Amino acid sequence: MMSRLIKIIKNITKKPIFTQDVSISGKVALITGGNSGIGKETAIDLAKRGGKIYIACRDVIRSKDDLDEIKERSKSSNVKLIQLDLASIRSIRQCSKEFHEKERRLNILINNAGIMACPKSYTEDGFEMQMGTNHLGHFLLTNLLLDLLKASAPSRIVVVSSAAHKFSDINRDDFMSDKSYNKIKVYGQSKLANNLFALELARRLEGTNVTANSCHPGLVHSKLGRHVNAWYKPIYRLILKPFYKTAYEGAQTQIRLAVDPELETVTGKYFVDCEEAVPSNAAQSYETAAWLWAKSTEMIYGKFKDFDKLDTKS
What is the CA radius of gyration of the chain? Predict the structure, then answer.
């Protein structure tokens, strides 16, 4: 009995590391939120492998120390900062414009940035903050960069989701949580949207040699949980601490999805602990994924007329 219990605990707390020596020399990668947490560890790893890495972050001035750390730890000078606020359509479009001016290729796009369980608030464009940042912002950015991804094929898109997607469904009647707001459920809905986005993206990219997969990094020590209530802290210290990963450990699944040659043609899948896993039933619904794509398109691109008018005056 004891040996079985020990085995179960080891399986639950396992923290696989992707150790395969794969060079990505000559390839270009863009990582959202690459200035901290698992995004920073991913940037360091990919830079070590010889890639040209762009770190997309909100505040490039405050991120210069992070850039210096990434360069120092990776022993690579081929790492760049680019400004991106996923809570702003204008910023996302400007980021795409700037990236297109700098590069003619994009081999790896890692949609890593996110926020978790924040108080109810809205993006610059009036979207609920968690859905607006975690899903809609990445939805727009990815679509604006698809031309480069296709031109650089074989190329890969990695969407960082969470096991929290299993605790929510897509609320079609209150997609922006205007009627009711539970910050944990809304976070779960935004992470489910990440899975469904990758699923539909993979379907739409069939035959292009561009893959799209989602992943759960695990419970990770990071700033992501800064909005979680204080009551959680003693639970973490007493019960959950052994299950948490370092940022380095949490980055391993998205690193494998980004570089492993064995996964070059794998698409539309969900990964946990560096291995393919089974997401919730809701995350496997092609009908919901198609609805989400149409809804996201309607919400984002419906605003472009107003932004284009503003752009002509600046």
Answer: 19
Q: What is the pLDDT of residues 30-85, one digit of tens each?
A: 999 999 999 999 999 999 999 999 999 999 999 999 999 999 999 999 999 999 99
Contact 252, 44 (CB under 8 A): no
List, by residue number, the catalytic residues: 187
Number of CB atoms found within 10 A of residue 212's CB: 26
The pair of structure tokens assigned to 102 is 């700098």
DSSP states of the chain: -HHHHHHHHHHHT-----------TT-EEEEETTTSHHHHHHHHHHHHTT-EEEEEES-TTTTHHHHHHHHHHHT-S-EEEEE--TT-HHHHHHHHHHHHHH-S---EEEE-----SPPS-B-TTS-BHHHIIIIIIHHHHHHHHHHHHHHT-SEEEEEE--GGGGG----GGGTT-SS---HHHHHHHHHHHHHHHHHHHHHHTTTTTEEEEEEE--SB-SGGGGGS-TTHHHHIIIIIGGG-B-HHHHTHHHHHHHH-GGGTT--S-EEETTEEE---SGGG-HHHHHHHHHHHHHHHHTTHHHHHHHHHH-
Q: How far is the C-alpha of 71 from the C-alpha of 53, rounded, in Å?
A: 10
Q: pTM of the entire structure?
A: 0.90
Q: How many C-beta atoms lie closer than 10 Å to residue 122's C-beta?
A: 13
pLDDT tens for each residue of 104-116: 999 999 999 999 9
pLDDT for residue 150 is more than 50: yes
pLDDT at residue 313 tops 60 = no
pLDDT computed for residue 264 by the predictor: 98
The pLDDT of residue 244: 79
